[in-house]
Amino acid sequence: MENVYLPVQLAPGNLNQPVLPHWSFNLLNVSLGASSNAAVELQTLATVGSYGKQLGHLAEALELVIGKLKLLDSKELTEAEKDTLRVFLGDLSAVRKIKAPQT
After folding, report:
1. How far apart are CA 57 and CA 99, in angstroms?
2. pLDDT tens, 33-66?
3. N or C, which end of the chain is more exposed by having fewer CB within 10 Å?
């Protein structure tokens, strides 16, 4: 009896398939740029908090100062200056609304 070999392939030769082609997942990417002291920046990020957290603290402190000094009622500020403060306070309020369901 003679064996016959046919060029038949029942399974694919390559079983690799990309799940999400052209996608990239990065867990953490911090670009410090041209820092004058990268070590201080890294330690600050690790111990104090992210830049967003630091900005949030500054924003809350500035909101407190605006309220305590009653700057929106001040006769010394122009309407354009008051509008600048209102825009800032509006942004802060919008951030609070976004964060509200998370807390």
Report:
1. 14
2. 677 888 888 898 889 998 899 999 999 999 999 9
3. N
